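Annex B.
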Amino acid sequence: MERIYIFLALFSFVFFLEAIGGSYINSAVQNIERQFQMSSRTSGFMISASDFGYIPCVVFIAHFGSKGNRARWIGAGAILVSITYLMLASPNFLFPQGHHDINTTAVAAQLKPTAGQLSPNSTLRELLSYQLIRDRMPHDTYTSLMNLEDETTPIEKYNITGKNPNPTNGIAAVPINNAYTIDGWLIDEALIAANDVLANGTSQNTLRSSLSLFINRRANTSDKDIKKLRISAAAPFTFCGKLTNSLRAIIKNSKCEEQSSNVYPFMVFFFSLLLLGIGRTVPWSLGVPLLDDNIKKKSLPAYFGAISSIRVLGPICGYMIGSFCNKFYYTLHPPNGLTPADPTWIGAWWMGFLFIGTIALFPSTALFFFPQGKQGSSSSVQLHDVHKEKLKKTEEDDRTLGTKLKDFGRSVKTVLSTKIYLGSVLGRVCDILAFKGYIVFLPKYLENHFGIPQYLVHRYMAMFGVFGFGLGAATGGYITQKLKLNGRRAAMFVMLMSTVNVCLYSAKIFIGCDSIVNSIGLNNRDTNYNFTRSCNSECMCENARLYPVCDSQGFAYFSPCHAGCREAKQYGSDPILDFTSCECVKGGVVSKKFCENTCKTSTVVFFLTVLPGSFVAGLGVVPAMLILLRSVPPESRSLSLGLQGMAVSLFGTLPSPIIWGLVIDAACLVWDKTCNGARGACSIYHPDRLRVWMHLLYVVIRMIALITDIYVWKHAKHLNIMDEPASEEKDNIRRNSIKMQAVQPDP
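Solute carrier organic anion transporter family member: predicted structure tokens.
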């Protein structure tokens, strides 16, 4: 096998892994936001950190790196990239969200019964004043019982009817998991006795004896009860109960004292992405010209199409890895009642970075030590820029630094004086400005707007979006070569693809739906998104996190606490819990199983526009890249790609996530709070604003790109992107003659 093909395989694999990392970062953003309580504005600025490293380095690396061993430069950059992926996983281990030592003295004091409550002659009022009983007793029932006259007869020994009463949903054979309740079976029997007292005026004996037994069982189980309360307080959901929610507040305060903000995780992410930006300057600006030096120009469209397709396979794999990792909870031990389908699920985002970083080290090292081969042999690879080498022969080797800088300035001026190049670069800047931020926050949009779980979002993006783009890139390379698209014909092809893309994305503005999370916001517009009602005012729901549940009619609530639910019941190993004794709900029961997704049709229609849209976008990649590459002198190709990379990063990838983060945050209705009371991650968005603003911004920017495509078409009349330049054709003839001599036997 020829050495160039080995280099091409290694180079494509590095490109492939770099693309995997790029798309995987997008799949991890929302998990990082939730774990470290970051807003979209903050995460967007964090993602832009790679461009802060890329912009100041790319032009100089492209110019000076092209004068040395380009394979070694590419390998060094790829090694740096693989190390930064490992660094990106480190905040999960440096700032763990694990066990916190807390002061439970106040909670233990409320769990300790008074002498009057332990007395065999306790009155009903004394028994009802015990906080755990108060938390479990519906407000109306509690008030009615407190208004009754106390009976003073001695409390009889309670006759236990059974520790596992039949569950309210009729599944009598399935045992109840009591992880979130303290003697819930006994309180259930007490509630039955209370209803009997209030409805029929029967004696209070049974009620008093059941409550007395409950309180006496607390006398020697304080540590065990606190452990159960802590499990409930650390659960992903919140239900009505002052004692549990006060412990939740204590835990939150303890976390805040240990780690007051998300500044330190942000700094680690930012510095890692900064180094990532420096590392990714090399493969594109040096690798493409290297291939151009070693491959016939007529074959370049096919090679570039193949490389583009291979690189596009990277995002497919990146999103599939993201889908796989998001099935695991970030601590690897998910709490009961939380599944990957929940909008508050935090996937194990760090696993993918560890995997990608480890794998990428091997081909990167191989590129760094890649041998050129014997100069002049048929298998040698031109690792140094042949055009730079020719220029070196005509210049003195001992040039001063000032002379080199003047030469650099003249080269930059030559590149920037090309109208086609400037128009092409401006168009690609607009493309990236529209695409980068959109794709970073698309998983958040799909999850919030259509109710699609994160792991499925990334799978769908790989199946429809990235696959369509890769297929389009390969097809575009084939069409360019087959139809010999040259000059204006190639520019016209790019312009037509931009027009179709704008039309398809304009249609997405009208594809809307109200998911379960969206409906929570819509149901509370009249109260200005204040979820507190008279039925849950005593539940201490202020620190409740989003955990959507629905009643039997499908009406959605922000959390079980806001539905006034006082107990969580889990039947067997079923991860979906029932929340009972809900005072704000007719029927008294809410659950996730009652929440029906009504967005299936809208989801199908949306992704039916994604596949052709991404395919059309991919069709224009190869001709646009060839127009850019052929619009400048051959000796300026690396510099032109470096300048293009700098412009795309400075005006495209750098501001794009920040702009999109601002737009998305502007559509937020309900915010989580951080330790200092500032805004954290957004829980609920305004669905119409989010949909219209995201796609309208994309369409406006792409229309500007379309204008630049028209400009390029106007000036591309004499542009030659397919035919072999005369001097390089002679070089190819010389190389082919060497190969022919190499295979002929000696006479």
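The CA atoms of residues 27 and 225 lie 40 Å apart. Residues 109-163+172-238 form one domain. Further annotation is deferred to the next reporting cycle.
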